[in-house]
Specification:
single chain; 75 residues; mainly alpha; 67% helix
């Protein structure tokens, strides 16, 4: 089962963003071996494209929202 975004802390969201960004670069590279290697790492928890854990934009939005909240609280 993949984690719900609201259950993650900022560092976990940041780490997931790094994975998803690397996945995007792999897809753009056209290197099928690289894509297959990363597929097992990035999607080890399963899910599909509709799963928020696997959706770059949903993870990015949640990360930005949380980072903004932490910044505001630190002011």
């Amino acid at each position: 089962m993949t984690p719900a975004l609201f259950d993650l802390d900022l560092d976990q969201l940041r780490a997931r963003l790094v994975q998803l960004e690397e996945w995007g670069r792999a897809l753009e590279s056209g290197d099928d071996n690289y894509v297959e290697t990363l597929r097992h790492e990035v999607f080890e928890l399963g899910g599909d494209e509709e799963d928020e854990w696997n959706d770059y934009h949903r993870v990015r939005n949640e990360f930005d929202r949380r980072a903004s909240e932490e910044f505001d609280l630190g002011q």
